[in-house]
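Model it.
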Amino acid sequence: MIIDQFTLILGITVILLAIIASLASPFLHKVKMKSGKQIGGHKETQPNLSIVIPVHNNATELQSNLPILLRQEYKGNYQVIIVADKGDRDVEELMKRLKEKHDNLYVTYLPDSSRYMSRKKLAITLGVRAAKTEWIAIINPTCRPVNEDWLTSWAENMGDDTDFVMGYVALGKSIPPIWRFEHIQTANNRLHSAQCGKAWATNCFNIAFRKSRFMEEEGFRGNLQITRGEYDFLTNKLGLNRNVTVDIRQASWLYEDEISDEEWKKRKKYFYASRNLLNGSRSYSLCMLFNNVMLYLSFLTSLACCVFGYLSHNWIVLGCSSFSLLLLIVLRTFLASKVSRCLGGDIGLSHMFAYDMRLVWQNLGYKISYIRSDKNYFTSHKL
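Modeled.
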């Protein structure tokens, strides 16, 4: 069989496109797992620290998640600081009951006069100021540790050569798998970036930092005009080009069991509202754009060449394009599965490539939804 130049070029092109599209995958670089010895090992003495939890209409979540935080088996002294809205009867009554049993619980309330400010950022600021320790951990009331040893594992990161700690939050199995897939893709990308010295954002509500650094950098000054994005801004301001430790050991994970559809979409829109203020967001956007273009360019080119090869009875083109399509699916599924196993995604192999393709349109939908939204919703009206 004589292979003409056109067939040769077309066959090589579709295979190269599949390889490039696979190498463009956000899952190519997997966040590294470090052992306890690498992080700091089990210390005889552990730092005193404060866990700050900003609360807004979260009485149900607090009732489920707060008790295990108050029962941590920890050698050092620690305090849980709840900052809630004044007048939230459910939270006030819950705090009253828990304070009778736990002397390491401290509660403070946001004044009603702060309604036009970023309440989450104000709550974190008040919590940090109220803390009497150097190390501060910030977590969401919707998140919980799996057992009473979480704080011991988490505190191993807080060494003399560390200023900022980034952890992982695993999503519960009741959360749609496409969301879990998106979550592990984003978490892997941002945690790996932090391990490379570029901690610019996080989608995991599990961070810790030094109080002195927060005060030196004047907290959220510079981004108070944006209502949310508190974890991203803290990571970008306190973690970028700093001594950052990333801990994805399962003992240090937090878990978020449920997220409503409304809350999930809000988080995406808040990120679009704040990302222009984050150093490092532009390179991330360019990398994701390149991934999206190469993924669909390779997929559609391979499909088109399969049809062309079949209709023209050019079996070389048909074979090469079929191989390139299979190569694209297998390589990208393999890369995604490695990260999914590492981060507890629990997503079936047969669905991964479909989710990979679908995320392009899902993220486009988030962006269109943000563009069509009233921008006043994402800004503070009064500072």
